[in-house]
Specification:
Layout (H helix, E strand, L loop, with lengths): L1 H19 L11 E6 L15 H17 L4 E7 L15 H4 L12 H11 L3 E6 L3 E3 L12 H4 L4 E4 L2 E4 L4 H17 L4 E4 L16 H6 L6 H23 L4 E4 L23 H5 L3 H7 L4 E2 L2 E2 L10 H9 L6 E2 L1 E3 L15 H10 L6 E4 L12 H9 L19 E6 L2 E5 L6 E10 L2 E9 L4 E3 L12 E8 L8 E2 L2
Parallel strand pairs: 1-2, 1-13, 2-3, 3-7, 7-8, 8-9, 9-11, 10-12, 12-13
Antiparallel strand pairs: 4-6, 5-6, 14-15, 15-18, 16-17, 16-19, 19-20
Helix pairs in contact: 2-4, 6-8
Length: 488
């Protein structure tokens, strides 16, 4: 009889524990909150070329601290803007955006990428390494190009279109080279993801055809030219997916496409938009195929328009992407850089509206903002909105590629509001979190470093209330979470 009662109590206890946990769609607890940091043309970092090592580091720490104050938990850092590198590479020269001349290393030498990753992870934030797959020379009239740049070594791989030079996406050797670059990054650095933006085939220049006819004639594979171009992009994405996950299975692969996949007037699967150029028809990036085939782990469509826009309405597009994520992680790209550009973007409610809208949809897991410098002057008071309302509590990043199950933490009271915490096993641990439930709403009350052994709730800013419930969880390196343990 005692055994039966004990079993019943254990079952009831497990049921209550299960009910206590928020769903994975609870945006107050689980949410990606990222910022793009562009290095091309020194948009965000470093502020200008030729800064001292100390100034480069100081600027980066300042922007990280600003984003952390705003509640961000990830950065998307551009490390390969134009066939170059913001890190030491045997494959590509140092970027001109660092020291002012392509091929010129910092002096005295240091590795900016290793530094940036360390500082980012120190703050509990993810580091997504953003690379441009096809742009090779940003401006053929002005850009510094080193003798060791790949355009000098293999000029036959490149075409000029407008004032830029591009890797020719139709040449298999280009795919192979890009895979070598990515494998080098993934194998040498503790990044959390490889990230690519919307620049596949370039946006069309009116009256000019992209000059890839020779490559098409040489290797058309029986396809018409438009399908051949899409096939080229499909091939490199499929290969990169394999390269990344074979090198380090836990590293994510994400794409941030232009906001319109295809207009409904061209395809019944498309959005009710009037995009002048689209991913599928102009950039030859079939994002839906990549999601459907599982070739990418997350997608961040750039929805840089306001709600109510007459050609590309934010509401229409955010709903469309919510319905076309194919089970992959979906975050929304916000055009915070547009603050003040028209009446809609002078409205302080625009970004709050966009956040509320995406949080109301089940398949959207967060936001990414373009770009870092836009936050410097608190546009429309949006820094305040994030700090005081939308991101007032920290959030746990979504678990995209978990490689192991996280062990349940152990917690014991040592006196007052002081506790000893830890885990019994040796699984890689990223952090602990205190989850609270207040008036039916879950939130993350505090994130705690993985090496913490003793915590004090008052010191963490967690003021316990009798009407609330509190739990401790352990978070793994890939953001997987343990069972919830009630805090006594």
């Amino acid at each position: 009889m005692t055994k039966r009662i004990t079993s019943t109590l254990l079952l009831v206890g497990f049921f209550l524990l299960a009910k206590a946990q928020p769903s994975k769609n609870d945006k107050n607890v689980f949410e990606f909150r990222g910022v793009w940091i562009a290095t091309v043309e020194n948009i965000d970092w470093p502020s200008k070329r030729g800064l001292s090592n100390a100034d480069q580091k100081s600027e980066f720490i300042d922007l990280l601290d600003r984003h952390q104050r705003n509640g961000m938990n990830a950065i998307v850092m551009q490390i390969r803007p134009s066939g170059d590198a913001l890190y030491p590479s045997a494959l590509e020269p140092w970027s001109e955006y660092l020291m002012g001349k392509q091929g010129l290393a910092p002096s005295p030498f240091y590795d900016p990428l290793a530094f940036m990753i360390e500082e980012t992870h120190k703050r509990g934030m993810e580091f997504h390494a953003w690379i441009n797959p096809y742009r090779a020379v940003f401006n053929i009239n002005k850009s510094s190009v080193a003798l060791t740049h790949i355009t000098k070594i293999h000029p036959e791989w490149f075409v000029t279109y407008g004032d830029k030079k591009y890797f020719n996406p139709g040449i298999p050797e280009v795919w192979q080279f890009t895979n070598r670059v990515v494998k080098d990054i993934v194998s040498r650095y503790e990044i959390d993801a490889i990230h690519m933006d919307d620049y596949f085939y370039p946006y069309r220049i009116p009256g000019k055809e992209f000059p890839d006819q020779a490559a098409y004639l040489k290797n058309s594979r029986g396809l018409n030219k438009e399908d051949w171009r899409r096939s080229n992009c499909d091939s490199i994405i499929r290969q990169l997916n394999a390269t990344i996950h074979q090198t380090k299975p836990a590293v994510q692969f994400g794409i941030s496409p232009f906001g319109v996949w295809r207009n409904k007037t061209k395809d019944p699967r498309g959005s009710v938009t009037k995009g002048g150029q689209t991913n599928y028809d102009d950039l030859y990036a079939d994002i839906l195929l990549w999601l459907e085939k599982g070739w990418i782990d997350y997608v961040v469509p750039q929805l840089y328009w306001e709600h109510g826009h007459n050609l590309a309405d934010y509401d229409e597009l955010v709903h469309w992407w919510n319905e076309n994520s194919y089970g992959k992680q979906l975050y929304i790209g916000h055009g915070i850089y547009r603050a003040g550009s028209n009446a809609a973007w002078k409205n302080p409610n625009e970004i709050p509206y966009q956040i509320n809208k995406l949080r109301s949809l089940p398949n959207i897991g967060g936001s990414v903002y373009f770009s870092s410098n836009s936050f410097k002057n608190n546009p429309n008071g949006w820094n305040d909105s994030l700090q005081q309302h939308y991101y007032v509590n920290p959030a746990i990043l979504p678990s995209v590629l978990p490689q192991y199950k996280m062990e349940t933490p152990i917690i014991s009271k040592t006196g007052g509001q002081t506790y000893q915490i830890g885990t019994e096993g040796n699984k890689p641990l990223k952090s602990f979190a205190i989850i609270q439930k207040q008036t039916g709403v879950y939130s993350v009350a505090a994130l705690i470093p993985a090496d913490a052994k003793i915590i004090n709730l008052n010191a963490l800013g967690v003021i316990r209330k009798a009407s609330n419930q509190y739990w401790l969880i352990a978070i793994g390196k890939q953001n997987q979470i343990s069972e919830y343990v009630s805090i006594p």
